[in-house]
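Data availability (excerpt). The following record was deposited with the supplementary files.
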Amino acid sequence: MAESNMKKSLGFGTALSTVAGTIIGTGVFFKASAVTTATMSISLALFAWLLGGIINLCAGLTAAEVAAIFPETGGIVRYIEEPFGKFWGFISGWAYGIVYMPANVAAFAIAFGTQFTGLFHLTDSWIVPVGMITSLSVALLNFISAKCGGVVSSITLIIKLAALGAIVIFGFLQPGNVDFRLFPIQAGAHREFWGALGTALLATMFAYDGWIHVGTLAGEMKNPQKDLPRAIAVGLTIVIIAYLLVNAVFYFVVPLHQIAGNLNVSMEAADKIFGGIGGKIVTAGILVSVYGGMNGYTMTGMRVPYAMGKKGSLPFSRFFAQLNRAGVPWASGIVQYVIACLMMLSGQFDAITNMLIFVIWFFYCMVFVGVMKMRKTRPDLHRPYKVPLYPIIPLIALVGGTFILISTLIQQFVTTAIGIIITLIGVPVYYYMQRKKGNN
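Predicted structure:
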């Protein structure tokens, strides 16, 4: 089946819920600890969340231009292939579809299993099996139809925003900590300002990631040229506000030293806000949030190998290019599920997430450069949407992305190297496929 057989059933609401629902997953609950450990300062921690949001918003506004130009299934592969050629398009698709998306599903599944076993007092041996079963249920829901996956995103987004809203509203009604101050913005004791900010900013990147994935659904959207840029901009704005408010509540009700290094800060905050049952309520909210984020990565992720399979770029391309009767790339989804399960066996949430940051932001930076390059080399392209304040916003995104790359390479060298090595495996695969095409 060709892309024309994929049903154009998705509107702005689904696109918006995919953006916000994919981003708001585990990061808002689990990265407050890392940000606080880095800064040991409420003002600098919240500034890091704000700055991370601004960088990602500028990145999203920039990427939206090329997404509107090429509203096709596959997303980032096309955004990079157009300005830089087939090689870089393939490598980005390889990293995205074979490494990045399954790794995110695995990380979300481990987080879900961890919270689930804690809620029901099960042993840690249940974490991976629960994660595998949960991610399988997400995949099966998405195999029903793209619209079904969109409904899951919408429902879970409403529930998670309601839970976060309750935490914010009732949290600020508490007496609050005497040391809660937003200014001056400075690092805590025994912390150097720029080093602390850089480390904290890195921790926010995983929490904010996911805004570009909606582009993989473009081939199934009714009006992608209009809805894609709006969904990215509005979705990221919602996430930034939510993250700032929720983290402010954490610092408002829980002492700073109890947040640093504490992955259960959200439960502690809920206990103080809602009483003894609060921890269980928030855990249930986290489970819904993680499930929705996992759904976003599953829904968008399977479209990348499908698009590459359609072009004959991958080994077993005919298999990857298969759609079911509902127009869903089920074969690609199964492969990604198997890869995710293999990654889950490591059981390492932080190692998996750290491995992803450098690789994905390298390709994000290529997208930013590509937007500016095509403004010069292909000025005749029809641009339904243009980046506002050009070239300021793309440059902010590029500078922020470059800082993230350098900081990640320095601070997380081992896990970054693993991600790079897995990505580079795609190089011989690319040349093998090119030689195979040449012989046919």
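Summary of structural features: Residues 83 and 374 are 6 Å apart (CA to CA).
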